[in-house]
């Protein structure tokens, strides 16, 4: 399998998804994406729900050259990893924001993105209770209020939908990061192979997570 590539339905071509942290692009990144798309006549460029740009329809022999020309790493798009951190603009650009969701989301993605886990995990960080990053239906989510972040765990919008439960309220961004690190440790120790975090959280229960984290 070519590096960072996913075989498509036709059984012949591949898709790649460059890692664009926080969904923040620069003119240079966009220019490189446009240049490879033109050069290799990439038929489909798709904005993903994780704030990335998928390049679809590459030939096997083109994949490595495209990575070289992009100068970007593959995103953890499939497999048992911390897949994506979706973060809304927060205080960086939204008048309703009460916390810096983009800053927190980018830190989480920088520190923990692509980590090996028992199953897949998705994260959503929102700057206010409007929850544009859908924290309630992410495996791990946080949204800002005036007095700090509310952290919710165990949500999923996937095949088995589930609304997350409140783990803790009124915490700082640094506390969210520490909690997240501890939660990944617990998940790695107690999660079953292939078990998505939301399923793990439902199985062990909120009380168990709170006790293990010293929150109860
Ligand atoms: S969640 Fe709140 S802060 Fe974030 S984009 Fe939506 S309205 Fe703005």
Summarize the structure.
This protein has 216 residues and is of the alpha+beta class. The protein has six helices and nine strands. The chain folds into two domains: 66 residues, Alpha-Beta Plaits (2-Layer Sandwich); 131 residues, Sulfite Reductase Hemoprotein, domain 1 (2-Layer Sandwich).
Fold and architecture overview:
The radius of gyration is 18 Å and the shape is globular. A hairpin with a 2-residue loop joins strand 7 and strand 8. The strands form 2 sheets. It has a 5-stranded mixed beta sheet. The chain folds into 2 domains: 66 residues, Alpha-Beta Plaits (2-Layer Sandwich), CATH 3.30.70; 131 residues, Sulfite Reductase Hemoprotein, domain 1 (2-Layer Sandwich), CATH 3.30.413. With 216 residues, it is α+β, with helices and mostly antiparallel strands.
């Amino acid at each position: 399998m070519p590096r960072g590539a996913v075989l498509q339905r036709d059984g012949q071509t591949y898709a790649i998804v460059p890692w664009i942290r926080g969904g923040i692009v620069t003119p240079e990144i966009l220019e490189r994406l446009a240049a490879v798309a033109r050069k290799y006549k990439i038929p489909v460029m798709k904005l993903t729900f994780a704030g990335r740009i998928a390049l679809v329809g590459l030939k096997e022999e083109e994949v490595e050259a495209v990575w070289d020309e992009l100068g970007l790493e593959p995103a953890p798009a499939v497999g048992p990893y911390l897949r994506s951190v979706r973060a809304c603009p927060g205080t960086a650009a939204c008048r309703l924001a009460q916390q810096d969701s983009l800053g927190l989301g980018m830190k989480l993605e920088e520190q923990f993105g692509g980590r090996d886990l028992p199953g897949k995990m998705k994260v959503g960080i929102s700057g206010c209770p409007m929850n544009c990053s859908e924290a309630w239906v992410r495996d791990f989510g946080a949204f800002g209020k005036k007095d700090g972040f509310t952290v919710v765990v165990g949500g999923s919008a996937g095949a088995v939908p589930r609304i997350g439960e409140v783990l803790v309220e009124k915490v700082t961004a640094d506390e969210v990061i520490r909690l997240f690190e501890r939660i990944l440790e617990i998940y790695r120790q107690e999660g079953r192979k292939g078990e998505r975090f939301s399923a793990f959280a439902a199985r062990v229960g909120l009380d168990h997570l709170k006790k293990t984290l010293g929150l109860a």
